[in-house]
Specification:
The chain is an all-alpha fold and 185 residues long. The chain has 6 helices and no strands. It has one domain: Ferritin (Up-down Bundle). The C terminus is likely disordered.
Length: 185
C-alpha cells in the first residue's frame, strides 16, 4: 500500500506539456567532416567530396520536388498516365536523395536536409509558381537532371570512386530517357 501512495505522489508532479525553447549543443558544424571515422581518405578529400555531394543532393531534392509539383498539377486527357509517371520519377528521386545523403554521412560529413538550405544551395533555377504544359515540364526536368549529373560527373572524373555513382547515373538517365520518349523529343 505504501508503494501506491508513493506512485500517486510522483504523478502529481508529472507534466505532459512539451518543454519549449530548449537548445541542444551542436554535434558537428555543416561543412566539416568527422575525424573519428576509420576511413582511408584524407580530410581535404572528404571535405571536397561532401561539398560536391551536398550540391548534388540539393539538386536532386529540387528535382524530386519538381516531379511532385507536376504530379499534383498535371491535367488533360492523359492525366492518369502522366500522374503515375511523375509519381514514379518522384519515388526514384527519393531513393537517390537517400543514397546521396547516406553517402555524405558515411564520409563523416553533414548532409543538407532543410528546404531553405536546399533552395539556397541548388543550382537549378526556381520554376514559376504556375502550372506548365506537360511537354515543357518534361523538357525542363530532363535538361535539369542532365545538367546536374554532368556537373557532378565532371568533378568525379578526377576523384576516387564513390560506389553509388553508377546506380545514380543509370537511374537518372533512365528517368530522362523515359521523359524524353513520352514528350517526343
Amino acid at each position: 500500500m505504501g508503494k501506491k501512495q508513493t506512485d500517486a505522489k510522483n504523478t502529481d508532479h508529472i507534466n505532459a506539456q512539451p518543454r519549449l525553447h530548449q537548445r541542444a549543443r551542436e554535434i558537428q558544424p555543416y561543412g566539416t567532416v568527422n575525424h573519428a571515422l576509420p576511413l582511408e581518405l584524407e580530410e581535404p578529400v572528404r571535405l571536397e567530396m561532401t561539398e560536391q555531394l551536398n550540391q548534388l543532393l540539393a539538386d536532386t531534392m529540387t528535382l524530386r520536388d519538381l516531379y511532385k509539383k507536376s504530379h499534383w498539377q498535371v491535367a488533360g486527357p492523359t492525366f492518369y498516365q502522366l500522374h503515375l509517371l511523375f509519381d514514379k520519377h518522384y519515388d526514384e528521386q527519393v531513393e537517390l536523395v537517400d543514397s546521396v545523403a547516406e553517402r555524405i554521412q558515411l564520409l563523416g560529413g553533414v548532409s543538407l536536409a532543410m528546404a531553405a538550405d536546399v533552395a539556397e544551395t541548388t543550382q537549378i533555377e526556381r520554376p514559376l509558381a504556375v502550372a506548365k504544359k506537360f511537354r515543357s515540364s518534361c523538357h525542363d526536368y530532363s535538361m535539369r537532371t542532365n545538367l546536374s549529373l554532368a556537373k557532378f560527373e565532371s568533378w568525379r572524373a578526377g576523384h576516387p570512386p564513390l560506389g553509388m555513382t553508377v546506380r545514380m547515373t543509370s537511374l537518372s538517365a533512365r528517368c530522362c530517357a523515359e521523359m524524353s520518349f513520352r514528350c517526343g523529343f
